[in-house]
UniProtKB/TrEMBL annotation, chains A, B:
Residues covered by the Prephenate/arogenate dehydrogenase domain: 8-287
InterPro entries found in the cross-reference section: 6-PGluconate_DH-like_C_sf (IPR008927), ACT-like_dom_sf (IPR045865), ACT_dom (IPR002912), NAD(P)-bd_dom_sf (IPR036291), PDH_C (IPR046825), PDH_N (IPR046826), Preph/Arog_dehydrog (IPR050812), Prephen_DH (IPR003099)
Native species: Nocardioides islandensis
EC number: 1.3.1.12
Designated name of the protein: Prephenate dehydrogenase
GO molecular function terms noted in the UniProt entry: NAD+ binding; prephenate dehydrogenase (NAD+) activity; prephenate dehydrogenase (NADP+) activity
Pfam family, one: PDH_C
GO biological process entries: tyrosine biosynthetic process
Length: 359, 359
């Protein structure tokens, strides 16, 4: 049984990636979760994964309703939840916060004090319950967006939900939230789509030169187009404002490149560099300096274990690991990221145990 | 001593990221490498890393000269190399291939048959000799761009250089190369710069909502602005052509979003999805399907080793590893990527050994 104020039951409406992940997280914490979804296939999958149960016919009222449906139907689902569960606090996990609130106000929904919006920054290019994980929210920012009529109790309960998932609550107004995600999520997604769209027309053979850069830039563009058209449409004013700024700067860029104006081009590139350093480090902390140690590892089950055992024996803490696997080769390349002052010690230690490092 | 046709000595002109990495790779293979750089600091660093030596006063002529200088000075450095090393094959590792060749032709350079351009797709947002690694080229595409007067012997020697580094040679004409990288490298870089540039003006607190998406989209924009203005300026016609296409589609996008035309917006997003699937899998193979197993791991040196030992004992091959570290917490979250049909077996096996998994 959970120990905090949030004891459940929690009704999760919508068994997609976010709803199912939340159900898994809360179930593991001992909070009773009831699931609903208009798609019987999604619902069956989520139930099968252990993300919750169907609400019994005779049941105590839910303490909290979490609306995790597509953007277009969030407003009406919130209204339904506030009406049908008159004692519950109601939140949602949608990507836009002002639109649904305006809908509730326009329709004079009852119980608006019990509604507090939320938005975990934990989507991915994958979707649906099969991509769900109880770890999805761990360490991610989760916007909590009270409006002027939200009760303090409702806000506190939603903040507790966020903390229980391991996410970091970021409190802001619905309007601030929408302008923030236009910049940090919707604009990057749309520009990634434009870059990826140009790849479709590539002459034969040209994409053989694709490196890590274009993969990184375009990764998010693989996201579900129907979901994203709803998100972008729902946040149109803020998105159009930023797209207009990008268009103006694109015109400047085209002029600079076509006329060979290097100073203007450099200024645009320098502003980009400044932007990359403006992003806070993971979990809000400063980015940690690391050094990379490269090791060749034969592609057998036991070898990676042996490498980590040897790295562990060296006493060096591994900050991160990247594996570059080539299906056509007998060895993979493993990159171990460690504190810079540990690099030489780890290299020497691994070499003394017979590993092939790349200095 | 190396066994193939490429015996060296190899003269590497320019001790930045690429030149130093190449020096490290060839030195490890037993090929004698001589280094030159106008920056005595870069040269000292590269020599200290073991990437090669200063050419002795009395020395055999180099078999191969690799020009690894900034784009603006590639043409004149190639000309110098062809003139001063009349028996050597000459190549370069620059990001643009037509401009330097035109410069050589315009100035009637001698020995053009001995020149074959090249371009490893192995840059990164880091630069300079300290970021160098002998593993930098392993598994990466490396364009080899003979022109109509290149001799077959020269082409073969450059192809051998590429293969010795572990890279995959991709042969194409200089013109095709420049149009290809405009699409797969220069356009993504510039659009990433525009997205990153918008982050600079973000109101306080907004960037707290930055997720993995915006980090991925903007990562390349951290690259050296002076290097990139040279690359983009050197490939201006191909870049401007693609930027024009993007601008047209950006106008369509702005119209679709501001007028709520969902079908048009969806079409643009769908084209983006198609683009992401057009990128070939790593090393040209198809992308491998994987499933993710999440495990909580205490943040001590020995724990990761114990996890891999236990994973190894399960007999499951780990395809990739991601570690989500929170400096403020006692545990990290490790994501093990495995073949989908191995997921359940690995989960069960790790749980039976006491690991906390996230199902």
């Amino acid at each position: 049984m959970a120990e905090g104020r949030l004891q459940g039951p929690v009704l999760v409406v919508g068994a997609g990636l976010l709803g199912t992940s939340l159900g898994l997280t809360l179930t593991k914490l001992g909070v009773p979760v009831w699931l609903r979804d208009t798609s019987s296939e999604h619902l069956r999958t989520a139930l099968g994964l252990g993300a919750g149960q169907i609400a019994p016919d005779i049941a105590p009222p839910p303490q909290l309703v979490v609306v995790a449906v597509p953007p277009d139907v969030i407003g009406e689902t919130l209204r339904w939840a506030l009406t049908h569960h008159p004692q519950a606090v109601v939140t949602d996990v949608g990507s836009i916060k002002t639109g649904p609130l305006e809908q509730l106000r326009a329709r004079g929904s009852q119980g608006l004090a019990r509604y507090v919006g939320g938005h975990p920054m934990a989507g991915s290019e994958r979707s649906g319950p099969l991509a769900a994980s109880a770890a999805l929210f761990d360490g991610r920012p989760w916007a909590v967006t009270p409006h002027q009529d939200s009760s303090a109790d409702a806000v506190e309960l939603v903040l507790e939900l966020v903390r229980m998932t391991g996410a970091t609550p970021v409190r802001m107004s619905p309007d601030e939230h929408d302008r923030a995600v236009a910049r940090t999520s919707h604009l990057p997604h749309l520009l990634a789509s434009l870059v990826a769209g140009r790849l479709v027309d590539a002459p034969p053979g040209h994409l053989a030169l694709s490196g890590q850069g274009v993969r990184d830039v375009t990764r998010v563009a693989a996201g579900d187009p129907d979901l994203w058209q709803q998100i972008v449409t729902g946040n149109a004013p803020a998105v159009v404002h930023l797209l207009g700024e990008v268009r103006d700067q694109l015109d400047e860029l085209i002029a600079a490149v076509s006329k060979g104006k290097r100073k203007e081009l450099t200024a645009i590139l320098e502003q980009g560099v400044a932007g990359t350093t403006a992003i806070p480090g993971k979990h809000g902390g400063p980015a940690r300096q690391t050094a990379s140690v490269f090791v060749s590892v034969p592609d057998h089950p036991g070898e990676l274990a042996r490498l980590f055992a040897d790295a562990g024996a060296s006493g060096v803490n591994i900050e991160d690991v990247r594996i570059d696997h080539d299906p056509g080769r007998p060895t993979g390349l493993v990159e171990l990221l460690v504190a810079p002052d540990m690099e030489e010690h780890l290299l020497t230690s691994l070499e003394s145990r017979g590993w092939v490092t790349h200095r």
